[in-house]
Description:
By secondary structure, this protein is mostly helical. The chain is built from 8 helices and no strands. It is globular and about 65 Å long.
Amino acid sequence: MTSSASWQLFWAFLRVGLLGFGGGPAMIPLVRAEVVTRHHWLTDEEFADVLAIGNTLPGPIATKMPGYIGYRVGGISGCIAAVIAIILPMIVAMIAMLSIFSRYRDVAWIRGMGQAVVPVVMIMMAQLTWDFFDKSKAALGWLASIVMAIVSGGLIYWLGVHPGWVIGAILLAALLRPKGNKKAEGSA
């Protein structure tokens, strides 16, 4: 991998790390914007696959996705550049913010900062949800997409099933689906 490509990975994930308020899930739309829209390192479908598999693995999504994408784009050096770029702002910000917060936690505007970020993160997550619904609707149809969303939501929120198990079950079902459907798709 060229040093230019390593720097591109580093700067792309540094932007995500600097602007990704709200933690890993809030960073996902920013990662998508850099990886799919800006640099075209992955397609939307590949990004969705990386996100799905990343959610089934243990650990924070904020480092798993950059690690894999960096490796895919630039090998080991790309992986290292992407992971360092994503965690560096978090480390510096945590040290600085916790120092400030512990010193000035009773000041109203400090409390308000945390509350003001929540609606922005909510909108970013809603946009990502809508984008994935559109992709699901195109691949499966709107009825199947809604049914899968309702069943998945029920399993996760009402029955307390871990999302990784739900995603794993869906992946397993896709792998075990009858081959007749694949032939019909290929001939259409």
